[in-house]
Specification:
This protein is α+β, with helices and mostly antiparallel strands. 28% of the residues lie in helices and 36% in strands.
Length: 225
Amino acid sequence: MLCLYTVFGMELRMTSTFPDISISTDRLVLRPFDMADVPAYIEMMNDELVTAWTEAPHPYTQVDAERWVRRIAPAQRTKGDGIVFAVTEFLTQRLVGSVRLHNTDWRTLATEAAYITAPWARGEGYATESVLALAQWLFRDQGFERIELRTAADNTASQQVAQKLGCISEGILRNARIARSQTEDGGWADIRTDLIVWGLLPEDLEGVAEQLADAGGYGTYNDWN
């Protein structure tokens, strides 16, 4: 649903929501989460690297996963904040990650992307492929003008995804995120980290898919998150 208002003869967007859709690539299907994803999602979210670089609860429980699938993820779309996709393999239907848009600004047509790849699917280029498909859909079909990615300063794998997509590094937000570091006793301690801000505009995607194909595809590094 799209709401508009007029100021001094200019038509402006107040709020909207993304359509309830799925997106397919040659290898992947991006679709809404369902309850069948819960066991694999719990396993993915309890992975050490996911724990380190995300703000998800730890340990990630059955209750957390069911709340995500039933309430939190759908509400991202219905409230207009963004949209959440489970990333699954086209052939096996196995959950291999997630990708989402959030902090969406409907007036400026800008949003922020975030992505996670399951430990059993790293090294296949799934994060790059899924975010590229999402960006193409967002720019071409939804008329958006900007996607922003924010990666922790030490999360080099996530930065490689941004670079492969043609994102431009726009600056550093100092001490802007709390990450987690594993302690000697197996616990986790909060640590502050800088964030690198990446911007992606429609013109930045020109030729990206072809360049990836010429380079042998997506999976040349561990693009886990």
